[in-house]
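Internal tracking record. Fields below are filled automatically when a chain is submitted to the structure queue. Please do not edit lines marked as system-generated. If the sequence contains nonstandard residues, flag them in the REMARKS field before resubmitting.
Queue: standard
Priority: normal
Entity type: single polypeptide chain
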Amino acid sequence: MKRIIFILFLLFSYINALTFPNNFEANFTQTINNNGKKIYYKGKLFYKKGQILWKYFYPVKKYIWINKKVYVYEPNLMQVTISKRPKFTLQNILKNAKKEKNFYIAKINNKKVYFIYNKTIKSLHYKDDAGNLVTITFSKPSVKPLKDSIFIPTYPNDVDFIYQR
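SYSTEM-GENERATED OUTPUT FOLLOWS
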């Protein structure tokens, strides 16, 4: 999960260099394909100047905030996992990114992330550490202004905390 968050954060930072809007909101469907067996997730993504909120609604609720740190809140487990925000430079990503015919390729930590971008991000896919093909498709994009408050992690006071290095 930490690697997926890192890759997605880097990708969104890279896309920002392609005139990605300062505010972005979209529905998403995430598919993880493991040898023909597929797992589907659905939710909503919010992005504002380097801050990200992934709200998963299906099959279970999960919230991932990426700002100064990474917070993953899983309501069914009553647990929040907190980790450091990935360190990177935008210049390192840009020097390795290539535009192909109708898609882009970004090489991040020896992994290739493929994405379709046409005025806004349409979809992306990559192989995770377990060899699964992860595909995320975006729909109903919006660039309306977003409130800063949605990027502040919120969860009940009685959750368990897990700290990762």
